[in-house]
Design brief:
About 50% of the residues lie in helices and about 15% in strands. A 5-stranded mixed beta sheet has the order 1-2-3-4-5, sandwiched between helices. The protein is α/β, with parallel strands linked by helices. It has one domain: Restriction Endonuclease (3-Layer(aba) Sandwich). The model has no long low-confidence stretch (mean pLDDT about 90).
Amino acid sequence: MKVLRSLLKNDPAQVDLLSVGQILAICGSGKLTDDSECSRDFREYLQIATSDNLVKYVQTCLQSPFERSGHVLQDVVNELGRRLDYSVENGLYQGRTNAIGFDGLWSEASDHTIVVEVKTTDAYRINLDTIGGYRDELIRIEKITTNSSVLLVVGRQDTGDLEAQVRGSRHAWTVRIISADALGKLVAL
């Protein structure tokens, strides 16, 4: 973050010219992994990035994917949640044994918690039982209550197939869907 912080202090307009991949490259080791210096630096930067830049980063991740762009998208989506005044806990980039693999937990003052799952596309079937299982396990260990739901944030705006999959499942009462683009527009409002 030292290089990035120096750029931000001395010439913030220069940072706006950098791609999200370039920004990531100057964070820590440039390798975005769980509990890494790169992850901490990148998330710290996202907290001060403009909302316009966050929307631009979402578009880059979806239209011009790069190595770890799915992880970048996950962090940007969680930052968008913060901009909507949720208290956000970042999840894991990759699942691991004995850990619940949610992408983010968004909590609000009314004690409602949203288990967030970010998908770059809905072109493949999403296992709703796995995602619903994250919520169930979080309830079981009393990290969240039944006053919770799941939000699927998908890269594509056309979510019709996924909506049909949710409607036809036992998760229809607890799962909601929004495109990453629509989430960015909501933050812009």
